[in-house]
Amino acid sequence: MRFPACLCLAATLALNGPALAQPAQTPAAPAAPAAEAPQSPPKLLVVISVDQFSTDLFGAYRSAFTGGLARLQQGVVFPNGYQGHAATETCPGHSTILTGSRPARTGIIGNDWIDQKIARADKTVYCAEDPDVPGTSSRDYAPSVKMLRVPTLGGYMKAQNPAAKVVSVSGKDRSAIMMGGPVVDQIWWWGGNGFTSYRGTPLTPLIEQVNAGVRKTFDQPRPAMDVPAFCKASDRAVRLTDTLSVGDGHFARAGGDARAFRTSPEADAAVLALAVKQLEAQQLGRGDTTDLLIVGLSATDYIGHSYGNRGAEMCIQMFALDDALASFLDRLDATGLDYMVMLTADHGGPDIPERLREQAVTDAERADPALYPSAVSAAISARTGITVPQGTLLLGTNPFGDIYVNAALTAAQRTRVIAEAKAFYAAHRQVEAVFTRKDIEAAPAPTGSPESWSLATIAKASYDPERSGDLVLLLKPRIMPIATPAPGYVSTHGSPWGYDRRVPMLFWRKGLMHMEQPQAVETVDILPTLAAQIGVTVPADRIDGRCLDLDPGPASRCPAPQDR
User: Fold this and answer.
1) Segments of 335-493 assigned E as strands
2) Euclidean distance between CA atoms 232 and 189, whole angstroms
3) CA 188 – CA 200 distance, rounded (Å)
4) With 0-12 CB in 10 A as exposed, 13-18 as middle and 19+ as buried, what is 129?
5) Rounded distance between C-alpha atoms, residue 454 and residue 467, angstroms
């Protein structure tokens, strides 16, 4: 059994690089690592983020992986990694991975937020834009790293040795930008019909070659992919509305459907192929210092949003990802370089409530439309008589997370509206907690194990006094904050619960002895851990994370023990 539509991708790109291979049906025995741990820094760090690759997904499939994800499990495994904050979205999560800092420090409190002080009419700010560029909006934006308030690993590497090279490629701009940071040699992301970069950045011949190959691939219709035997039990339709069902999709698409292309295993294969081409073109790992290759794989997230994460679609994706990573690691092996890989995720994600209810999770349901800020605004206006000339009393697009009070209100009206909104939300049966700014500022700071923090502390981990809302709304577990599912958007993340916060953290290097540590760690620990592996100094008072000892014996590359 093969995925024929994906197999042609590398050939189309003329890369002889990563292609999706046949999904194996029985796990292979892992090869034993070398007995002696490496002593010198690796020549290349490869950091991979798999968008929405939760600990739950990893746990469901890890015993069936036989390719790249099986190999990475031979290294050091932290299955209980945490995105410690409440705003478990793509931009905040990626901002933690290579900064060592939680969103409260990075300033990336969500995929977007509201800033009523900016000059343009659209007051929503996208996390990876410059809102001061004339003629832009949060949808038609100028990509930028401006909103990120802290340096990244690549910046620390270049500060210590300017010869270090940093390359970032991804399926999403916010992933490439948040992990790459302000100091990169090459940065590219999928722009809808090809790879692109910041405004004014010309496409290089290499990017034009890759884009031509990708377009040639998605211009052709793709037949349905075969379903691995492991996935047969998941291959059944779940009806969401009279016209929409999910669960039995096999990624067939018409030629030229770029949206369907990105929501499939092909998208990850394209990013990995570009990563290989950048590895070769930039001669990464060939200099006198360690280089950094950053890879953001986004298909798992698009598939999770479109279909949920327990149907045939996600099952096919997991095997395809495993195979694509195997091919990618084979290409790295072929270079002869001493390289180290770290793989994690920006957040997790829940399955759709309709399928969960079929599987004995009786409290799973969709959010009440009455929780949307516009509906709550109308209710408060009806009860109090308070209105504004334009817009609504409360600003926000989702029935969870940051909620803002309209700046047109008087101080007295503002106080009344906040009190009314908090009381309304607190009384709703789907709401677990609602915090004002004062509540969050008074909460204990994050310290100790992230699995034991209070909800207020979790919210504080992604609280920025300049950017956060006047209220932070947290729904109860398994309340899907999409009232009405639609094609391409049936499931989402963003909650403070374990299924959204917990992600695996895998470290692999030839000779690195196997160890699995089930205790809770954080993604902010990745930066100091990798920095220690390559001898880069990071001031402890400028980050939130701590170095993790990857050596199961008495030796350690970490600095002196640090208290959390």
Assistant:
1) 339-344, 365-366, 394-395, 401-405, 431-436, 471-475, 479-480
2) 34
3) 13
4) buried
5) 22
341 phi, psi to nearest 5 deg: -115, 135
User: Annotated catalytic sites, by residue?
Assistant: 90
The tens-digit pLDDT sequence of the chain (564 residues) is 334 434 344 544 444 443 333 334 344 444 444 445 677 999 999 999 999 999 999 999 999 999 999 999 999 999 999 999 999 999 999 999 999 999 999 999 999 999 999 999 999 999 999 999 999 999 999 999 999 999 999 999 999 999 999 999 999 999 999 999 999 999 999 999 999 999 999 999 999 999 999 999 989 999 999 999 999 999 999 999 999 999 999 999 999 999 999 999 999 999 999 999 999 999 999 999 999 999 999 999 999 999 999 999 999 999 999 999 999 999 999 999 999 999 999 999 999 999 999 999 999 999 999 999 999 999 999 999 999 999 999 999 999 999 999 999 999 999 999 999 999 999 999 999 999 999 999 999 999 999 999 999 999 999 999 999 999 999 999 999 999 999 999 999 999 999 999 999 999 999 999 999 999 999 999 999 999 999 999 999 999 999 999 998 888 899 876 544
| Token pair in block for residue 93 | 């999560």
Reported residue count of the chain is 564
> Among candidates 414, 456, 452, which has minimal Cα distance to 435?
456
Q: Among 133, 158, 131, 128, which Cα is nearest to 144's?
A: 128
Under DSSP, the state recorded for 129 is B
Distance between CA 204 and CA 206 in Å, rounded?
5
How far is Cα 106 from Cα 342, in angstroms, rounded to an integer? 21
